[in-house]
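Worked problem 6 (solution included).
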Amino acid sequence: GPGTYCESVTIERSVVLTGDRGDVNVAGPGAGAPVMDGTGLSGAAAFELSAGVSDVTIEGFEVRNYGPDDNTGADGIVAWNSGTSDVTVRDNWFHHLGWDAVLVGNEGQGVHANWLVTRNRADHWYAYGLELTNTTTSSITHNELSNPTSDWSFGVLVYAYVEGARTVSASASAFSISARWWKVSLRSAGPPCSRA
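Solution. The predicted structure is:
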């Protein structure tokens, strides 16, 4: 329910975590969204998905103050492993994060599948607002991104480099970004990435 939670949650099985989704036609949560606050949790993520987890939804939360800046563990939602699938991240507000709002990927150990990242707001992140690395059949749509905190930040990064994974694909579309500068990068070291 509503309230402020100063913790890091590890997700090891299928689950639907629903706060206050608010108006489902507008990016971000409703006014009564529960708050995940990382104050005092150096280098932790608000939500961390374990390898192989499937059928997860995280919706309607405010996620803030996971840091410090330039700390690769300080994310809103992270699945930096392999094999997660059928994950939906929607109607959340991520802000003041030391790395990414949403970080999905790995160093080449495998592929993630069927991620949908939609109608989220993200501001004041350090590295990448929304990142899908080594994912297949996944989408980033209708998100609002603003005010990254480093001068090399990316708004959206979709990157595929798992060798032999010819079906790796992800798309990014219909998003709004306002910042002093930012980037969208769709990169591939083999199979193509697409922007719809």
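Discussion: The first strand starts at residue 4 and ends at 5.
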